[in-house]
């Protein structure tokens, strides 16, 4: 450790890219502010995700960090390969819970308290930490890596069920407004809820999230990667659950503006947990300004072969050049190369670029990119807002459904394409976004981008909130 006297923050992310990345960024900011940080990952992520090419180069980007792992091993084969997300979540949280307790017992006993844990910052869906930390008298701050609106919705799952607003099972009910969530009465339709609200009341995923949110309420504070100017009214509602809510986003922007002025600003690509193919930047350099549509569905979403082809036809027919992230595993059953119609291959060679994983934040900031076709994961949405990049949202899981409604209806920074991806819709949406027909969206995106930048600048709301978080951790006895 660089500073043995510093408060010691133990961080526990949920083991997935979209959750680890914001935790790493937060940890980096805490380190810059002189705190000592230990990041606990599962052994699988520790070995595979964090160190795909060069372990030492990854770790060298985090001076002052300690990286440790929980030996939970691999989930059973059927959980890794099947569509059993709920069972996988139960397995991960249960395995981590046992190992986390063991970890704390060993740490507390072996160290004789030379560097006791001052507080734990745990992912919102690792809320078992709250029960365990209570035994050790360590406060837990919960870091929900969703936005405020999704977090607020998840806190109402019980109520939605009680009021009969979920499960939504009939198509004709999809466009009814949700009335039981204060602040969202005019925004949210049943269609905008996550898929697990559309199955049945005993659905395991629904039960999992209801259990997590009810436990999460006992955390001493809530951290969100969002900013006041974007979601202030919903953040105010969250104060009815948590006395303290730290809104410290966009974290990648805060890292660039660096809260500790003695520390050099960070390049946020440093927080990428996968190797990035940078050849696409050279390709972008050769494209006209604002001409390219960037396509990425994040780290979890999968497409069927049919969906892949519908997107592909839609993109080609739109006439726009496109940069597409097709990561390994994105497409179910990977025999797509042989089956790709030749007209798509020819068009892609002429005006497309495909990479396995790119430098997304840099891509979104590139002058050649004019729109982002996305799954509306929260990190991607926030990065798009920061870059002033209009979006087309095609949500598939969890919070993505709510995010896409926020983008399309609340902030009007893009188009919500939920529930469909047929080639003519894709073409129409891409043309609508790229051919500058959408003046309102472009203006709104520019305004929110500027607000995001102000929020992380000295004196801005997120800058202030981050300083407060650091002070509060330093003042824990
Ligand atoms: C998951 C869930 O899908 C999402 O709903 C939730 O909000 C967070 O956890 P993920 O699918 O990984 O997230 O999407 P997202 O939140 O958008 O995060 C993806 C991250 O990967 C972004 O920070 C993005 O910059 C990065 N990325 C993506 C790359 O660095 N390169 C790429 O090629 C694609």
Automatic annotation (TrEMBL):
Cited PROSITE patterns: UDPGT
InterPro entries to which the protein is assigned, alphabetical: UDP_glucos_trans, UDP_glycos_trans_CS
Enzyme Commission number: 2.4.1.-
Pathway in which this enzyme or protein is active: Secondary metabolite biosynthesis; terpenoid biosynthesis
Enzyme class: transferase
Keywords annotated in UniProt: Glycosyltransferase, Isoprene biosynthesis, Transferase
GO molecular function: quercetin 3-O-glucosyltransferase activity; quercetin 7-O-glucosyltransferase activity
Protein name (database record): Glycosyltransferase
Pfam families in the record: UDPGT
